[in-house]
Write a structure and sequence with these properties.
The protein has 142 residues and is mainly beta. It is built from two helices and ten strands, in the order βββαββββββαβ. It is 12% helix and 38% strand.
């Protein structure tokens, strides 16, 4: 299944190739202060791949906080965060915002709470390598 999505203004778009036909899409509602304030609801497919298309000037420096191991890609024009990435051992992993996805049947979405605040950095990175999208490519569109 291919899932399209992006920010509100369209300057940051993505295509998530799920790597098959999901029977459900897990949606993690993170309880960190950033996600709470932004309505963060994230998904990933460890069998999938992700292409993120970015118009020139749409992304500045990604927002980082806490351990600094995740890059929140905020569109400079509309303020939406459609993608979060993490560089681990030279490879980019990512999650996408469920709220930024388009045309996904609501019945596929399975929301659950998520709390990662008690993880140490090694555990956090290990979890990401197992559960985040492992094939990620950012492409400039201008």
């Amino acid at each position: 299944m291919k899932i399209e999505g992006g920010c509100h203004c369209g300057d940051v778009r993505f295509t998530l190739d799920w790597g098959g036909e999901p029977t459900e899409i897990p949606a993690r509602a993170c309880d960190c202060s950033f996600c709470q304030k932004h309505g963060g609801l994230w998904t990933s497919s460890p069998a999938g791949s992700l292409e993120v298309r970015v118009r020139a000037g749409a992304l500045g420096e990604p927002y980082r906080f806490g351990t600094g191991t995740a890059a929140f890609h905020v569109c400079r024009h509309c303020g939406v965060v459609p993608v979060v990435s993490s560089e681990i051992d030279g490879q980019t992993y990512a999650v996408v915002s469920v709220r930024a996805m388009q045309d996904v049947p609501a019945g596929l979405i399975r929301e659950s709470p998520a709390s990662f605040g008690s993880e140490d950095v090694a555990s956090r990175l290990s979890r990401r390598t197992r559960g985040w999208i492992p094939r990620v490519r950012f492409v400039d569109t201008d």
